[in-house]
């Protein structure tokens, strides 16, 4: 019987024996037809998973694969949002579809090795030039990898993009339509334009919303909710970022979130990139720049969390690991580790409207296996080993090794503290 570490990418798993769940129970899982089932003897490997924990595979609900891994091209100064946009627009004319495909493929290998089986990526549709080159490159990559990974592609429409180009992008075969109304002179009009196109194309919508801490203009998210309700918009709607809501007083925030919940809008929070971009113009009392996650959860809103940009002008760091996002939700958004993990697993699948996955009867067998550790240790990540299953087939296997000169156990006590305490006891 194989152990998880002996599995190879492409292996099909039929049984996981003695695997541990987050609630501490030990159980056997049988996988058939890509689904966890209670009984049966399907073909595939019989795996001795004793000492391993099984959780729902990770997801990335908001990436920018067309921008990924470009931070070292040209100036690498630290940017606010406006400066990042300007730097990217200077780079964009020299980037073609082959360049995007190459970097996106490398980024996807990082995501999948971390445990990601589903990802939604935005891709710029600029107002001029070969506007659809990035979109076409990522749609081709999506289709080529469909047997291995769920990829949703969202054309990111600039307010300056002419309507015929927007219409053309919507007809290319994208999964959703996206945009950045907060960068328009009239955000409400831009939201209405994108809703119009999405309605005609029959596409869901995922908008960059309230990606600023400035409360002077109106709230994009409140306007989006009102327009969705007034139209009776029949397709799914996602709002990403929403950091301006963190600046609202409690009463106004509660009213806004009530409208969002009634509109059925899912919210994607992006702690790493928003911490990187926001608050640079504050000399003191610098705001965190993270959407108010706790009130959103309390309002019954579907919340997912993502990493957003990966080592590009909008975020110089990141490792393509949703556990890094979950860890930030604990430290910066004050979520419980269980809630933080849910935001990068089940919350992602709900926001992406994918069927439930995980180690439960009837769920899709998208699983992350790690050597047994506590929930908090898992969220802290990354651990020394990961095995990733997509529909019961091994998508990735990662193992890291470290060695130090430190002794395996602490030195014997001598009765003398190594660091004597001072008068305050420390």
Order of strands in the sheet with most strands: 6-7-8-9-10-11-12-13
Taking pLDDT < 50 over at least 5 consecutive residues as the criterion, the unreliable ranges are 416-426
For the record, the CATH class of the largest domain is Alpha Beta
Strand content: 15-25%
- CATH fold-level assignment of the largest domain: TIM Barrel
Q: Average pLDDT across residues?
A: 91
Q: What is the name of the CATH architecture of the largest domain?
A: Alpha-Beta Barrel
**Element pattern in H and E:** EEEEEEHHEHEHEHEHEHEHHEHHHEHEE
Helix content: 25-40%
Number of domains: 2
**How many DSSP-defined strands?**
16
Fourth-tier CATH superfamily name of the largest domain: Metal-dependent hydrolases
Q: Main beta sheet, described?
A: 8 strands, parallel
Amino- and carboxy-terminal Cα gap: 52 Å
Shape: globular
Give Rg in angstroms. 23 Å
Structural class: alpha/beta
Number of helices: 13
């Amino acid at each position: 019987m194989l152990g998880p570490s002996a599995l190879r990418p492409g292996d099909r798993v039929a049984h996981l024996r003695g695997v541990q769940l987050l609630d501490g129970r030990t159980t056997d899982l049988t996988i058939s037809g890509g689904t966890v089932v209670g009984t049966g003897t399907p073909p595939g490997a019989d795996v001795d998973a004793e000492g391993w924990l099984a959780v729902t595979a990770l997801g990335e609900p908001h990436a920018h694969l067309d921008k990924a891994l470009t931070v070292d091209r040209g100036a690498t100064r630290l940017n606010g949002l406006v400066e990042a946009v300007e730097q990217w627009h200077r780079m964009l004319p020299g980037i073609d579809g082959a360049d995007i495909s190459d970097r996106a493929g490398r980024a996807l290998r990082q995501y999948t090795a971390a445990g990601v089986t589903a990802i939604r990526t935005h891709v710029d549709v600029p107002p001029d030039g070969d506007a659809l080159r990035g979109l076409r490159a990522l749609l081709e990559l999506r289709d080529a990898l469909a047997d291995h990974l769920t990829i949703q592609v969202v054309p990111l429409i600039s307010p300056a993009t002419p309507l015929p180009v927007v219409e053309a992008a919507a007809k290319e075969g994208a999964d959703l339509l996206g945009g950045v109304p907060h960068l328009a002179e009239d955000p409400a009009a831009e939201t209405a334009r994108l809703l119009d196109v999405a309605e005609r194309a029959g596409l869901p919508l995922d908008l960059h919303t309230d990606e600023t801490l400035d409360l002077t203009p109106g709230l994009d998210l409140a306007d989006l909710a009102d327009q969705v309700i007034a139209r009776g918009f029949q397709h799914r709607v996602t709002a990403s970022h929403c950091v301006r809501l963190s600046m609202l007083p409690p009463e106004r925030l509660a009213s806004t979130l009530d409208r969002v919940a009634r509109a059925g809008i899912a919210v994607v929070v992006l702690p790493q990139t928003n911490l990187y971009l926001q608050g640079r113009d504050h000399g003191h009392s610098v705001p965190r720049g993270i959407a108010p996650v706790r009130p959103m959860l309390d309002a019954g809103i579907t919340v997912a969390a993502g990493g957003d940009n990966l080592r590009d002008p909008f975020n110089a760091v990141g490792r393509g690991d949703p556990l890094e996002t979950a860890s930030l939700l604990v430290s910066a958004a004050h979520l419980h580790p269980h809630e933080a993990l849910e935001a990068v697993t089940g919350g992602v699948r709900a926001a992406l409207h994918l069927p439930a996955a995980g180690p439960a009867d009837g769920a899709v067998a998208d699983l992350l296996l790690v050597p047994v550790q506590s929930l908090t240790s898992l969220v802290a990540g990354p651990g020394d080993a990961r095995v990733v299953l997509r529909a019961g087939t091994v998508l990735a296997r990662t193992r890291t090794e470290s060695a130090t000169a430190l002794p395996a156990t602490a030195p014997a006590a001598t009765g003398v503290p190594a660091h004597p305490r001072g008068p305050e006891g420390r």
